[in-house]
What does this fold into?
Amino acid sequence: MSMAELFIVATPIGNLGDITQRAIDTLAKVQLIAAEDTRHSRTLLSGLGIKKPLVALHEHNEEAMAPKLVDQLLAGESIALISDAGTPLLSDPGFRLVRLAIEKGIRVTPLPGPSAIVTALSIAGIPTDRFVFEGFLPARQAAREARLNALSGESRTLVFFESSHRILDCLADMANTLGADRSVAICRELTKQFETVLRGPIAEVQKLISSDANQQKGEFVLVVAGASENANEKMAQAISMARALQEYLSASQAARIAAKLCGVSRRELYEDIWGQSKNSDD
It folds into this structure.
């Protein structure tokens, strides 16, 4: 049996003109296209004048579909994997398929192209030399705040995806946990007709979006500046975090966790908040 290739093909995140010629040529020559949403992808392919068999590969069926697709690859069929938009596997399905294909010795070929993550970073005006992609934050407020608290001392730039119905709640939690003055770029509907980018302190951008219903619609990429290495700012973040944690933990436990995450002295943190020393090791 001959062995074919699995192509990981990036597709536009909005503007159809961003697709590469190599992507078009590859989609036209493969025997099968695995797509996150076949209805969405059929519209894209129709616009490109490409007619190919489509099979759905999404988070709910990937575990079952991956072995079947690998069998087809081993039988000699070339397959292209695409997501609804952008580069597959980045907060999208496909990891199980790629891993299994690699294990079976199948060649996996990337076709680079649009990515909402990189696009947002390129225009955010926030340092891009080191960054962390966190995908979507948890939907529930308590879990979202816990995740943000854990990231509050992260010095690398933070990148998140967010939905329209949670954008305001997300920004409110970010202001409370990361600090209202932390710089953020809210990139909405990137490359699409109503693309907007709002930049500034979290609190100011939050007010702008709250006052404009149009700014609450669409798909969002949030680029947030990393925590400052300045000792005073790190201590301020630790104080904010410890006070938030005290709702669920004792003062000592709250101080211990906040100090560890923010990289400050637990004793100094305890004294700054509660005005007394805590006889414990830092």
Notes: The longest strand covers residues 131-136.
